[in-house]
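Task card 7
Instruction: Convert sequence to structure tokens.
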Amino acid sequence: MPSRNVCHVLLLTADSDLAELYRHECPDRVVTIAKDPAALSRKPGKHRFDAIILESHKDWINDMKVLSDTLGPPPVMTLVGSAAFLRRASESVKALSNGHTVPRTTTKLPQELGFDEYVGEKLRDFVRRMKLGAGSHLHSLLLKALEKPLISLVLEETRGNQIQAAAVLGLNRNTLRKKIKELKIPLVAK
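Output:
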């Protein structure tokens, strides 16, 4: 059996969901997670990192400078971006750290996605978070998560007219009233 090279990845983020995603997506990698360079310096052990992944924030350029001073030569790969970008990039990082090439795809901006594509992307994140949290009853949780904003938006569009809102939603007026009460949806005065 050929020996495998160990790949050390440094992830700097304060987002615990993002940290858990990288732990899950890259189980064969040594993933070191810290909130910032100062927290990293408090962690024992010094590795030569093959990749640095940094959640961008206001002072991320300074963080990169501190990392360069602390860690020495730059790693093979440095990835800086928002938490949403880094979530999408986790599979690419996994493939790259396995030595595979990742096919280049054209990523659309949210405003360029169709409704189905946009909802699919959002659901993908929701399902991953649920899976990482060992969630169950996904169907009912998802329906509850969607129902409140949907009813609120329809009520807003109908200027609080519950009869019109019920018709748009395809619900009985009494069912809508019950859901408004259960979900604690504030009613807008006409």
